[in-house]
Every structure is written in C-alpha cells, then in structure tokens.
Amino acid sequence: MLPGNAMSDSRVSKDDIKAESLIRIQNPIVKSFLAGSLSGTLSTLILQPLDLLKTRIQSSRSSPSQRGITLIFADIYRNHGVFGLWKGLTPSLARTVPGVGLYFCCLHNLQGQLKWSTLPASGNHVGRYIQKFCRSDFTSTYSNQNKI
Length: 148
What we know:
Elements: H1 14-25, H2 28-59, H3 69-80, H4 89-114, H5 124-147
Helix pairs in contact: 2-4
C-alpha cells in the first residue's frame, strides 16, 4: 500500500494499484518508450496490408507491369480472405515495436542533452547550424580571397 492511505487493514485497493502504476509511468524514459512502442504498433497494424502488397510485388517473378497491385490484392483475398492482408504481422511487430520505442528513448535523451525544448520536425535547427557554419566559413574565405 502507498503511504498515507486511509485504509487500516492490509488489503490493497484498486486505487492503490492504479496509483503505483502511474508512479512507474512518470519516468520520462519509460513514457517515451511506451509512446514509441504504441505508435509503432498502430502504424504497423494500419500499414501492414500495404507492406504485404509491396513485398508481393517486389518478389513476383513476372514484371510488376504484368501483375499489378489489384491482381495481387485479389489473389491474397481469394486465397486467404481479408485477414490474409495482415500475414506476416508478428515479425513486423517484433521488429517495429521495440525499434520505435528505442528510437523515441534516444530522441528523448538527445533532446535533453542538446537542451532543446522541442525537436524540429524537419531538422531545421540542425540545418540552420550547418548553414551558419558553412556560410561563415565560406564568406570569410571568399572575402579574404577578394582582398588579395
């Protein structure tokens, strides 16, 4: 039981279990891993049919122009039903869930070490620093050559 609980007996209530679970999730590393794992799970579940179709197109012996995506889709649906589109889901989840979770953890650590309040979506901060470095180096070299 959590300290300061009003219960006098030794039973643990559902509220105590919920509170202890929330305390564990307060760790930012755990939160970022869970967020990444959840996003990896959802994206894999949603995009698995397209990934399967892409893989079948790439591995087909005939050229992709002869065997289009609609024919491959119809073949999968005819032979395996609608759930056949999620064939290979387990290996995809086994790869994606921990991978994206670790990616989010690393991103969180990088954000903390670089002291950015938000990381840029398109890498604008990194791009600006590189541009400033290149411009200052180039302009100083270029202006010194013109003075000679």
